[in-house]
Design brief:
- The strands form two sheets. This protein has a seven-stranded mixed beta sheet. A three-stranded antiparallel beta sheet has the order 3-5-4.
- It starts with 5 loop residues before the first helix and ends with a strand.
- It is of the alpha/beta class.
- The chain has eleven helices and ten strands.
- The structure holds S-adenosylmethionine.
């Protein structure tokens, strides 16, 4: 493994934090272990030249490869089920009324990783609207900074463990056996999710405001200022009455959070 000096470590984590919000200032070992092979395969003998190259901005592809290696993509279907219960009991009936005329929902899975989150949302939508699903536009926007993990999401093939929390009826209904231990998402669910690469540090310029934003287990890697600024951008991109879901191990600071707290990890835009 290559060695990383304190100076290069500092240069690299400062760059990553500033541009991508991810705080790796206590993750020196993780950086070394996840990047050493990449450096060697690209012919770098040490981290200094590599960090110089990254900071120069000459090679965006190299930055993408680095982010693909450093992001933590752990996720699974039906993660934090309490959110989906609230979605089903409270949010969906409300959205069905609100959108009775245009029949068009705006839901964003921000930091969607390999797709388990938006596909789970999609299953709930199909179940909720049932035979009326065809009359509704329920397509979900699903974004992540890592294009590598988005390829996995688009490929949409999962193993036993990843789908094990789903009811067995849903496993049969929404997956097609692809191999001994692998399952592909059904085309109807696939068509309901639009995947895009998006850095959450960038301004949010999507055409519509969202009824519901899932940003779960993403801000956990961001420092307070980065988190506060992102939550403000989310707020401006939420329709009045719309909701933000965050991970249950995360929290928003009361003093700076524009949303109203509803219950753990659920917030609502209640202002005018
Ligand atoms: C642990 S996964 C969370 C997946 C899913 N939301 C869940 O709760 O299971 C965190 C995801 O956030 C993405 N991420 C981290 N920083 C990001 C940024 N600045 N912009 C967009 N996505 C980012 C990572 O690539 C990773 O896929």
């Amino acid at each position: 493994m290559l060695s990383l000096s304190e100076h290069d470590f500092q240069r690299l984590y400062t760059y990553i934090k500033k541009n991508y919000g991810i705080d790796l200032s206590k993750k020196k070992q993780l950086i070394v272990s996840r990047l050493s092979n990449t450096l060697s395969s690209k012919g770098f003998k040490d981290f200094t030249a590599y960090v110089d190259e990254i900071l120069s901005g000459r090679d965006p592809e190299m930055v993408t490869t680095m982010l693909n290696k450093l992001t933590t993509n752990y996720t699974y279907f039906l993660r934090e089920e309490e959110h989906f219960q609230y979605f089903w009991d409270i949010i969906l009936p409300d959205l069905e009324k609100k959108h009775a005329k245009d029949k068009n929902l705006a839901i964003w899975s921000a930091g969607c990783s390999s797709g388990e989150e938006p596909y789970t949302i999609s299953m709930y939508l199909k179940e909720y609207f049932g035979s009326k699903a065809g009359q509704w536009d329920t397509r979900i926007l699903a974004t992540d900074i890592s294009n590598k993990i988005l390829s996995t999401a688009i490929n949409a093939t999962y193993n036993d463990e990843s789908i094990s929390a789903l009811p067995s009826g849903w496993q049969r209904k929404y997956f097609i056996k692809a191999g001994k231990d692998s399952y592909s998402i059904s085309p109807a669910l696939k068509q309901n999710v639009i995947f895009r690469t998006f850095n959450l540090m960038d301004p949010i310029k999507f055409k519509r405001k969202f009824d519901l934003i899932f940003c779960r287990n993403v801000m956990i890697y961001f420092d307070q200022d980065t988190k506060d600024a992102l939550v403000r951008r989310f707020y401006n991109a939420t329709v009045p009455g719309g909701h933000l879901f965050i991970g249950h191990s995360e929290g928003l600071t009361k003093a700076t959070c524009p949303y109203t707290y509803v219950k753990p990890a659920i917030y609502q835009k209640t202002g005018a």
